[in-house]
């Protein structure tokens, strides 16, 4: 049995969150999560020890880019605790490979970074890309099922604190849900905010800021713009594609 507590969160992120853990919002989240874990933890994804994997792999001091997702994948075998990331052993041409990640791979190729060899994005996280969902758990087979457990208060506080304490972060806001956090990010100074439609399904082409241009001949350019911003602010660019010579898209 997993006992959910603030100790699951790395100490640097707890420090950033300050007095949040004395708030009623935290107590609500803590009680709600423990309740669903007690009821049937086997139906929760990712596994409870991975709820805060994004924070563990990307310490506060290393954050250069934030990519906001909505909630974890609710299909078996996909959720890792990192937004958009899936296990490396899932073939890129399989039905399990999510459309959002497939379109991210297309954008990377169109921007000249090469072919994404698999869907595991741990390497991004280790370079300072915070892959953060706005709800950190879900019930298997039920998208959005934990959206009302209280995660919003924690993630909103985290986003606000990060924007206000760290200048020069790049925020990739894909789709309306991620873009709803814009007022929180705007409280910080000198942040680069990149917006587009969500990369999943047909929505990738929608809105006046499509993630991929209709016809799939060009992308929104977010990955290139991010690297240019980082270099302009004396940071190393992100290596978006592992250069190991593996060709799974051929």
Q: Could you explain the architecture of this structure?
A:
Strands 3-2-5-6 form a four-stranded parallel beta sheet. The radius of gyration is 18 Å and the shape is globular. The protein contains nine helices and six strands; from the N terminus they run ααβαβααββαβααβα. It has helices spanning about 10-15, 25-40, 55, 100-110, 120-125, 150-165, 175-180, 180-185, 220-230, and strands at about 45, 65-70, 130-135, 140, 170-175, 190-195.
How would you summarize what this structure contains?
The protein has 250 residues and is of the alpha/beta class. 32% of the residues lie in helices and 10% in strands.
Number of strands: 6
Shape: globular
Instruction: Report the structural category.
Output: alpha/beta
> What percent of the residues sit in helical stretches (DSSP H or I)?
25-40%
Low-confidence stretches: 245-250
How many discrete structural domains? 1
Q: How many strands, which pairing sense, and closed or not: the largest β-sheet? A: 4 strands, parallel
N- to C-terminal distance: 44 Å
């Amino acid at each position: 049995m997993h006992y959910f507590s603030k100790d699951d969160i790395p100490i640097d992120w707890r420090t950033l969150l300050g007095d949040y853990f004395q708030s009623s919002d935290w107590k609500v989240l803590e009680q709600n999560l423990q309740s669903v874990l007690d009821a049937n933890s086997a139906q929760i994804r990712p596994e409870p020890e991975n709820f805060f994997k994004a924070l563990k792999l990307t310490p506060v001091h290393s954050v250069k880019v934030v990519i906001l997702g909505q909630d974890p994948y609710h299909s078996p075998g996909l959720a890792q605790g990192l937004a958009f990331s899936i296990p490396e052993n899932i073939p890129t041409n399989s039905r399990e490979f999510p459309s959002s990640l497939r379109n991210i791979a297309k954008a990377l190729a169109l921007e000249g970074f090469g072919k994404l060899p698999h869907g595991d994005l741990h390497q991004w996280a280790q370079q300072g890309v915070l892959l953060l969902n706005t709800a950190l758990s879900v019930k298997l087979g039920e998208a959005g099922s934990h959206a009302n457990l209280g995660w919003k208060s924690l993630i909103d506080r985290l986003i606000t604190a990060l924007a206000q304490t760290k200048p020069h972060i790049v925020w990739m806001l894909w789709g309306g849900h991620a873009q709803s956090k814009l007022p929180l990010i705007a409280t910080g100074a000198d942040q680069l905010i990149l917006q587009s439609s969500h990369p999943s399904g047909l929505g990738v082409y929608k809105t006046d800021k499509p993630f991929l241009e209709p016809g799939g001949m060009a992308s929104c350019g977010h990955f290139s713009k991010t690297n240019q911003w980082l270099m302009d602010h004396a940071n190393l660019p992100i290596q978006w594609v592992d250069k190991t010579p593996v060709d799974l898209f051929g």
